[in-house]
Amino acid sequence: MIKNFVLLLLGSVTLFGFQSSVEERLYSLNRDLMCPVCDGLTLEQSQAAPALEMKDEIKKMVIQGRTDEEIKAHFVQKFGIEILANPPKKGFDSLVWLPPQCRFRKFGTTRYLLNEVCHFVRF
User: Fold this and answer.
1) Separation CA 63–CA 84 (nearest Å)
2) Under 8 Å CB-to-CB from 66, ≥6 apart: which residues?
3) Among 32, 54, 55, 80, which residue has the least CB neighbours within 10 Å?
């Protein structure tokens, strides 16, 4: 009797832990992907029909055992890089993440020197 109770307890704890981790993954993926028809909303925030379909598709993929990267790659291939809430930062796009002081330091120095020369030339 006690053995059955312990097995039932362990089984329910394991099942609850598995369900919790799946829900966390779904929540994370829904925050990392954008709604294809809504402007500026993630799947987590959107209630549009395409977003709900994507959520169901993500749930099926997680149950099938696909990794988060595979799921994201699937949607990038289907919709383009714009579907990612946090696209990879590379190339010219990475300049956005630099502080303004660093981006415009050269421009500011050039402007300062031009002002000094103009003041010097004026009589």
Assistant:
1) 21
2) 74
3) 80
What is the C-alpha separation between 53 and 113, in angstroms, rounded?
58
Instruction: Report the C-alpha gap between 58 and 122 in whole angstroms.
Output: 68
Distance CA 57, CA 65 (A): 13
Ramachandran class of 40: left when φ > 0, alpha when ψ lies in -120 to 50, beta otherwise:
left
- Taken as a whole, the chain contains a residue count of 123
Amino acid, single-letter form, for residue 80: G
> In a 3-state reduction of DSSP, which class is residue 81?
helix
CA atoms within 13 A on the CB side of 52: 3
Chain position carrying tokens 């598995």: 18
Angle, alpha carbons 39-43-47 (nearest 5°): 80
Any idea which residue has 């966390």 for tokens? 24
Residues 36-79: tens digit of each pLDDT? 998 889 999 999 999 999 999 999 999 899 999 999 999 999 99
Confirm if 62 and 74 have CB atoms less than 8 A apart: no
Query: Running DSSP on this structure, what letter comes out for residue 39?
Result: S
